């Protein structure tokens, strides 16, 4: 099972997450308590191995601004977490993750409108477009229409529930932010345990 740790804002935590087995690191460039500047993201990305996804999270940002940040920082995956239309998502030369809020099975119909590399399925939006720490009904993801799509599961994941979430939803990747924080800050012990739970679950299923 692949794991994305989102909302990273310092080199030490990024390196710790990667050493613990994280497959993707997320940098938030939208309104959020975890927002980072392109300059800081660039500095952190210098220290992250090539094989790790460096994901830039944007919400209703202009395409030229996104491209400028990609060029400046070394981001190699774009995550669009706003109201971006399908045509907007198709104009970039690097992989795109389209985030969609899922509250019911009808919301899954949104996937048919987009042609993206990955689909991040999150809980209905709260104060911010993501990182609200609320889960949705994971059993919805057993729907036939998700077959063949690379699904990233987000929203309310934690050390306690990630194994269950993987069992129910069978995603391509799990994405966590607030679930590995203590008092609003990334907690390296929680990051380690979350990755262990996610990866061990996958290993158990294979065996």
TrEMBL record:
<dbReference type="GO" id="GO:0004640">
    <property type="term" value="F:phosphoribosylanthranilate isomerase activity"/>
</dbReference>
<keyword id="KW-0057">Aromatic amino acid biosynthesis</keyword>
<dbReference type="InterPro" id="IPR044643">
    <property type="entry name" value="TrpF_fam"/>
</dbReference>
<dbReference type="Pfam" id="PF00697">
    <property type="entry name" value="PRAI"/>
</dbReference>
<keyword id="KW-0028">Amino-acid biosynthesis</keyword>
<dbReference type="InterPro" id="IPR013785">
    <property type="entry name" value="Aldolase_TIM"/>
</dbReference>
<protein>
    <recommendedName>
        <fullName>N-(5'-phosphoribosyl)anthranilate isomerase</fullName>
        <ecNumber>5.3.1.24</ecNumber>
    </recommendedName>
</protein>
<comment type="similarity">
    <text>Belongs to the TrpF family.</text>
</comment>
<dbReference type="GO" id="GO:0000162">
    <property type="term" value="P:L-tryptophan biosynthetic process"/>
</dbReference>
<feature type="domain" description="N-(5'phosphoribosyl) anthranilate isomerase (PRAI)">
    <location>
        <begin position="3"/>
        <end position="196"/>
    </location>
</feature>
<keyword id="KW-0413">Isomerase</keyword>
<dbReference type="InterPro" id="IPR001240">
    <property type="entry name" value="PRAI_dom"/>
</dbReference>
<comment type="pathway">
    <text>Amino-acid biosynthesis; L-tryptophan biosynthesis; L-tryptophan from chorismate: step 3/5.</text>
</comment>
<keyword id="KW-0822">Tryptophan biosynthesis</keyword>
<dbReference type="InterPro" id="IPR011060">
    <property type="entry name" value="RibuloseP-bd_barrel"/>
</dbReference>
């Amino acid at each position: 099972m692949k794991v994305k740790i989102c909302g990273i804002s310092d080199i030490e935590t990024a390196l710790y997450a990667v050493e613990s087995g994280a497959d993707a690191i997320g940098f938030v460039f939208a309104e959020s308590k975890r927002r980072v500047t392109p300059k800081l993201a660039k500095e952190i990305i210098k220290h992250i191995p090539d094989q790790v996804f460096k994901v830039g999270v944007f919400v209703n940002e202009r395409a030229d601004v996104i491209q400028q940040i990609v060029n400046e920082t070394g981001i190699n995956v774009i995550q669009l977490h706003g109201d971006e239309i399908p045509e907007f998502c198709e104009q970039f030369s690097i992989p795109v993750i389209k985030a969609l809020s899922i509250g019911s099975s009808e919301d899954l119909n949104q996937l048919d409108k987009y042609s993206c590399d990955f689909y991040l399925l999150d809980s209905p939006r709260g104060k911010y477009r993501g990182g609200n720490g609320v889960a949705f009904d994971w059993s919805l993801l057993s729907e036939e229409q998700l077959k063949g799509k690379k699904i990233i599961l987000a929203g309310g994941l934690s050390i306690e529930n990630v194994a269950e979430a993987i069992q129910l939803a069978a995603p391509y990747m799990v994405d966590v932010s607030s679930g590995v924080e203590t008092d609003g800050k990334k907690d390296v012990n929680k990051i380690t345990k979350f990755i262990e739970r996610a990866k061990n679950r996958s290993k158990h299923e294979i065996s």
